[in-house]
Design brief:
Chain lengths: 326, 326
C-alpha cells in the first residue's frame, strides 16, 4: 500500500489518506478472490487520491470535524471514482490502467461490469453508514447522476467533428469536475458548515476539476505513452475529441477534418500528423490558457476562505497538481 | 405503458403500480435521447413489477403508510432491478430481453454499462429523497452489496460440474431472493413497523424469491424459447448450471458429465440430449419439490401476519406467481 509521494509534503493529510486506503480495503469483501485481489491492486496502484484529499481538507472548515467520518466519506468518494474507472475501461476497451492490466483485460468485461457495480454499491453503503444527513446523500446521488448523464452524453458526441468548446466544457464538467465539486462540497457540509459555504466549496471543486481535466487532455499531446500509462491519441481514434484538438479545428480545419473523417481507420502516421497539426495550429497553447483560467479562478476562491492551515494546503495542492507536467 | 394483466385482480395495487411506473419515467432524464428511449421501452416492455408489488403490499402493515413515499421506493426498487438486468445482459451477451432487443444489442456494451449505472444511481437518488431513515438506506445498500457479491460469485462457478445444491441455493439467494427480501422488509420498515416485523417480512420475501428463481430455472426445461423470450438452455452453454441439472447430475452423472465437459462447444443435438437427460433423471420433478417447499414456507409465514386485505392479497399473489406455467 503506497500513497503517491506527493503527499509527503502534507503530513496530516497523508496520514488521513492512509486511513482512507485502509477503510477502502476493509470495505471490499468479495467471495470471488481473484477479482477482490485485482480490485485491491487497482486501488493500490498509485491513484493520486486527489478527490478524497480535497474532501478531507474541506472537512476541516466546519465545527464538527469527525476524523472517522471524514475518512469514511473520503473512502466512499475514491471507491466511486474507482468504479467509474473500471466501467470506463470497458467502454474504452482499455488494456492498461495505472500502468497495470485493466480489470476488463485481466478478467473480461463481465467481471468488470459487476466489480464496478460492487464498488458503486460499497460507496453508497459507506455513505449511508457514515453520513449524518439525508441531504448529503441527496447531494451525492444527484452528482453521480450528473456524472453518468455526462458519460452517456459524451458517447453521443463520438466522432462529432463539429463539437464546440462549449460542448466540451459541458462534457468534462459532468465527467470530471462534478466529482471534484461533490468531494469539496460534501467534505464541508458533513463537517457542519452552512449550506452556502458548502456550495462555495463545490464551486472551488468544480473549477479545480475543470482545470484538472483540461490539463489531462493537454498531456495527451505533450507526453509519451510510457509516462502516462495509456496510449497517446487512442481517444482520437475512438472519436473522443478533446480541447486541444477542438481548438485546433476551430483555428483551421482544412487539413484536420479529412483526417478525422477516417475515424477508427487512422494509421500510425496519420495519428502522428494529427498530433503535429494540433500543436502547429496552437491547440495546445490555447488549451493551456483555458486551464490557467480555471486554475486562477479556483485559487482566487480559495484565497477567500477563512485563513487556516488547511486553506494554505488547498492552495498549495491546487497549484501543484495544476502545474504538473506528467 | 401497459401493466401486466395479472394485476387486474388487485385493483388498488394496480393503481399504485401505475403510479410507480410514472415515477420511474419521471426519474429518467437522459441527454442521450436514443438511450433514454430504449430504457423507457425496457421499463414498459411488461416486466411483471413483482418486487415493487411486494414492497407496496408490505407498506400497508405499518402505522405510517404514505402512498407517495411507498410508490417512490417501489420505483427505486424496480429501477435497481432494471439496472441489474441491463448489466446481466452484457455479461450473458443476451440479444433479447422481455422479447425486445436488449440495450447492449441495440447500442453496444458501452451504452449498456452507463445506462445500468445511471439506473443504479437514480435508484439511490429516489431512496435518498424519499426514505425516512438512514437505517433503510443501510438495509438497501447492504442488500445490493449481497446481490453483486452473488453475481460475482456465480461467475466463479461457471462450468463447475461439481456445483452442489447448497452452492446453487446460496447463489440464487444473492442473485434473486435478496432483492425480494429487501422489497418486503423495506416496505414494512418505511411504513413504520417494528424492526422485528420488517425482519419477518424479509424472511417471507426471501422464501418467495427462492421459489421464484427455482421456478424460473425449471421453466428453462419445460418451456419453449418463444414463450420465454430467451434461448432455452443458453445458460448451460455459458456454464451456468441450475437446480434441475444439478439434481440430475446428483442422481446419475455418467452420461451428463461428458456432455458438460464440452462447455461452450455443445451442438444443438447435444443440448437437446442434456434437456432429455435432465428430465429422465428426475431433475425437473425434484426441483419442483424444492420450489414447493419454499412456496409453502412463504405461505405459512404470510398466514401468521395480521389478518388484513393485504395479507390475503400477499397470499393470493404468492400462490399465483409460484404456480405459473410460463
Amino acid at each position: 500500500m503506497e500513497l503517491h509521494p506527493m503527499w509527503h509534503a502534507y503530513p496530516t493529510l497523508e496520514t488521513e489518506l492512509e486511513e482512507t486506503l485502509v477503510l477502502m480495503e476493509d470495505a471490499i469483501h468479495l467471495k470471488n478472490k481473484p477479482v477482490e485481489q485485482a480490485v485491491l491492486q487497482m486501488i493500490h496502484a498509485g491513484g493520486k487520491m486527489l478527490r478524497p484529499a480535497y474532501q478531507l481538507l474541506f472537512s476541516s472548515f466546519g465545527p464538527e470535524k469527525d476524523r472517522k467520518k471524514a475518512t469514511a466519506i473520503a473512502a466512499a468518494i475514491e471507491m466511486l471514482h474507482t468504479a467509474t474507472l473500471i466501467h470506463d475501461d470497458i467502454v474504452d476497451e482499455a488494456e492498461l490502467r495505472r500502468g497495470l492490466s485493466s480489470i476488463r483485460s485481466q478478467f473480461g468485461n463481465s467481471v468488470a461490469v459487476y466489480a464496478g457495480d460492487y464498488l458503486f454499491v460499497s460507496c453508497f453503503k459507506l455513505m449511508a453508514n457514515y453520513a449524518s444527513s439525508m441531504k448529503s446523500l441527496q447531494m451525492h446521488s444527484k452528482s453521480m447522476e450528473s456524472i453518468l448523464n455526462g458519460e452517456l452524453g459524451q458517447m453521443d458526441n463520438r466522432f462529432n467533428i463539429d463539437l464546440s468548446v462549449a460542448d466540451y466544457l459541458e462534457a468534462i464538467s459532468g465527467k470530471t469536475a462534478e466529482l471534484f465539486a461533490l468531494s469539496c462540497a460534501i467534505g464541508a457540509y458533513e463537517s457542519g458548515t452552512s449550506r452556502k459555504f458548502a456550495e462555495q466549496a463545490g464551486k472551488i471543486g468544480l473549477a479545480i476539476g475543470m482545470a484538472f481535466q483540461i490539463m489531462d487532455d493537454i498531456l495527451d499531446y505533450t507526453q509519451d505513452q510510457q509516462k502516462l500509462g495509456k496510449p497517446v491519441l487512442e481517444d482520437v481514434k475512438q472519436g473522443v475529441y478533446s480541447l486541444p484538438l477542438i481548438l485546433a479545428l476551430e483555428s483551421d480545419a482544412t487539413r484536420l477534418r479529412p483526417l478525422l473523417e477516417k475515424r477508427g481507420n487512422l494509421s500510425q502516421a496519420e495519428q502522428h500528423l494529427i498530433f503535429e497539426l494540433v500543436h502547429d495550429l496552437g491547440g495546445v497553447t490555447r488549451a493551456q490558457d483555458f486551464a490557467k483560467e480555471y486554475t486562477d479562478q479556483a485559487l482566487k476562491l480559495i484565497k477567500k476562505l477563512p485563513a487556516t492551515a488547511e486553506r494554505d494546503q488547498l492552495a498549495q495542492l491546487t497549484e501543484t497538481i495544476l502545474s504538473r507536467q506528467s
